[in-house]
Amino acid sequence: MTSTHDASTLVTAPGSEWWRTAVIYQIYPRSFADANGDGIGDLPGITARLDSLADLGVDAIWLSPFMVSPQNDAGYDVADYCDVDPLFGTLGDFDAMLAKAHGLGIRVIVDLVPNHSSDQHVWFQQALAAAPGSPERARYIFRDGKGENGELPPNNWESVFGGGMWERITEADGTPGQWYLHIFDPSQADFDWTNPEVQEYFRGVLRFWLDRGVDGFRVDVAHGMIKKDGLPDYTPPADGDSMGGEDDDVPYWGQPGVHDIYRDWHQVLAEYDGDRALCAEAWLPTPDKTALWVRPDEMHQAFNFPYLMTEWDAAALRTVITDSLRAFPAVGAPATWVLSNHDVIRHASRLALTADSPQGEGIGPDSAAQPIPELGLRRARAASTVMLALPGSAYIYQGEELGLPEVIDIPDDARQDPTWFRTNHEKYGRDGCRVPIPWEAAAPAYGFNTTGDAWLPQPAEWADHARDVEAADADSTLSLYRTLLAERRAHLLGSAPFTWLDGFADDVLAFRSGDVTVIANVGSAPVELPAGRILVASEPVDGRTLPADTAVWLLAD
Ligand code: GLC
Ligand code: CA
Known about the structure:
This protein is an alpha/beta fold. It has helices at residues 7-10, 43-56, 91-103, 122-129, 196-212, 258-270, 287-291, 305-308, 314-330, 347-350, 373-387, 418-422, 467-471, 477-490, and strands at 23-27, 60-63, 67-68, 80-84, 107-112, 116-118, 142-143, 166-170, 176-181, 188-190, 216-219, 277-280, 301-302, 336-338, 393-397, 498-500, 508-513, 516-521, 527-528, 533-537, 545-546, 550-555. An 8-stranded parallel β-sheet has the order 13-12-11-5-2-1-15-14. A 5-stranded antiparallel β-sheet has the order 16-17-18-22-20. It is globular and about 80 Å long. Mean pLDDT is 94; it is low at 1-11.
């Protein structure tokens, strides 16, 4: 296979592939760094800032979509899977970014969005122009409506972004026509994955990026690609998670047919050198269910969303960690860990909320629950200190290493998430975790660019979180993450044996990971530390007493 990949520096032995233990940093391109100053981050911006990620100590980066897109869902509505949107640069800019990353020893994962395309994709445009029943329509999920004149949607499914899951089209002759399915926005039409033409097309998309040298794919909505035969009506539970986190038999989530697709893709990746990997975005309720996605011939990793959705509660954390470390290795896969991404409330705010905060709900100025910033940050630092000691692979989301909180007071007229519009402003959505990140306190847009423009407004307090400020402060969240990543690597924690330790209060997490002892005080009473030298602490520790919401790594003297 041809590849721009430098196999000599990046190949590992079978069984110890890089993705089993990697710390993977999620870049949200539009909010990372903006080289041309138009207010939206871009690929040259990423290239220019990669050194700081090498300095942080990450093994890989995952980029949210930068392919051609009308940007109705921030690039998760792809119109051309094999080209870069001019907003983000060119294929040449991508190649330069990849070469720079590989030169720094950083692998590159790109986002693949196979469940749906933009309505601007050439196939969807052809489907609109073609007749009902045509091969062009068969690439998507078109159906006749119900009711006397087809005026009612084919079933009662509700879109994740609010409103119905069906949109009616006007046929080429001007008459009201068929309906098409969209799990998300109406501009994101779901493909029919039972169609061999769709399957073959995506094999080609995988090969396009593999040939360019990418190390893998994060697969968007991996649990949604197959819909139950007959598309039966379904009403979700009133308090359910819209991404399917809680319910067991949703006709558009987790259908068994998805596994055939991943087995096929596994084969495509296996044709290439360099341990290429697939990571599933699959919102499933338990680690055991998630583990079905990473059986030996399927995906290599799946996000551990049950872990992300666990509150700051010792018993609940013990359970999800125990279940994860049993379920994933049982199928030969690494456990994964994640606390934040571009779809959820940043954990520096979420962990100080007591109410549930399901995917996409967001928080805004009028939300009933408001996090206390100091408490959230303190818990976030402790939670990250726990997470980065756990064996397996960990994902961190840009800005969490700076301790960024969710931005709550974004003005209504600046909000951009389709959730906000599709729910008639009832749900704030995800803009609060997507604000461009700060680099230099004194620069325009805090160094995001040189013009001061930013597609979402940055809060004034973010000067204190700028990377240059935090880099100069030994107690900053950035310094904490740098130390955690360096010690994780030095003590091989990604592949370390794990055991829980007895003899601590119920609201304390205590475990050994390799030669490191981790103690996290998830309760409110101070905890007496066992013997051992403090290697890392999420907050300053006075003597041998661990304060509330604090975690340490200890080494035997
Ligand atoms: C995934 C993405 C999210 C997007 C959705 C639709 O959940 O992470 O940002 O809106 O898929 O593509
Ligand atoms: Ca730009």
